Amino acid sequence: MLATKPDSAGHLLWLVRTGHGRTCGQLEHATGLSRSTVVQRLNVLLAAGLVRVNGVTGSTGGRPAQRWEFNPQHGVLLAAALGADRARAAVLDVGGRVLAGETAPAGIATRPERAARWVGLCFEQLLSATGWKPEQVRGVGIGTPSLTDGQAIADVLQSIWDCPVRLDSVADLMALGEHAANHPECRVLVLVDVGAAIAAGMVVGGAIHRGDGAVAGDLGHVRLPALADARCDCGSYGCLAAGASARAIARRLTVLGVPTRPGPGLTGRLRQGHPDALRLVRTAGGLVGEVLSPALSLVVPGVLVVTGDLAERPFLAGLREALHERMSPRAARSLRLTTGRLGSNAYASGVHQLLVDQVYAPAAVDTRLAAGLS
Fold first, then answer.
1. In the Cβ-directed half-sphere of 296, how many Cα atoms lie within 13 Å?
2. 50 and 71 Cβ atoms separated by less than 8 Å
3. Which of 34, 40, 291, 327 lies 20 to 30 Å (CA to CA) from residue 280?
């Protein structure tokens, strides 16, 4: 969102940050301002530590122009993802580079108060390890499976940190991160995270599509007749997660005499080519495809990204086969199926995208500068 004043310092920062103007000449052309006014605005941003000079442009016969860029050292962001199987936290600079991270085992996110304590302590330790101070934190982003429980965690963190605190689902943050880093040209992207739980996120026009309510993307508890006898961890029968999650497959392998734990244990079985693991995971891909195909036929994304413990070839094969069986041939052909490239840092990339767009929006920057804040 642009500032109300298209000639403000905040607007110039937006132009520099998004690549719409990197030299004085480009900024003059984009804003219609005089060179002296552009230089004055840039000096204000420079004094606040918001921009810096990064070399010069190639000479075309005259004096080379200085190249301006958003200063990634202006501050840091704090990010956390509280998943069904593990919890992660990270500190990253405002340029998007992850400086340090921490991971906790499953169970930390089962109770909001426990999760809030872990996140708060982890953020303090990560800041100390990276040498940044609490007052240099520009924003906090939290991803949780349940936005209802997540709100309690966000409220605790908002009482601690004097900066914006954003809450979203983990899958939405991962979808936004993968889109920004690897598929920015894609208008509609859907991400499916298949691990201990099964969840989806969608990005439309570069922004998260959250639906109406706090349960969008909760694929794991969609009921399937084929799983009517399978009991889910939620206590119900027939949920997709009861037959297609990493946790369910690990349990099934253990019953078959192949002791397996979700996570690296299951991934190892797949990569070793264990026949039961390959069969069960391919079937899981088909089940997820059965649930996804109506939604994908409706929104017709350009890219479908699969992440999580089951993002392996057998799962993709089963998923692709199910989608091609149930979607129209034209829609299926237009869909590009791929695995996530950011791995465990996808959520942090999504937090960065959300927070930087908010914290460094032109109006927000102009307000800070007017208040004498750097």
1. 35
2. yes
3. 327
CB 346 within 8 A of CB 307: yes
Contact 101, 126 (CB under 8 A): yes
Digit-coded pLDDT (tens) for 306-319? 999 999 999 999 99
Query: CA 234 to CA 175: how far, in whole Å?
Result: 25
Rounded to 10 deg, the angle between the 9-17 and 35-47 helix axes is: 80
Query: Range with the lowest mean pLDDT among 68-82, 146-160, 315-329?
Result: 146-160
In the structure encoding, which two tokens stand for residue 356, read together? 């930087």
Give the pLDDT of residue 110: 59
Q: Give the pLDDT of residue 107.
A: 60
Q: Please name the amino acid found at residue 261.
A: R
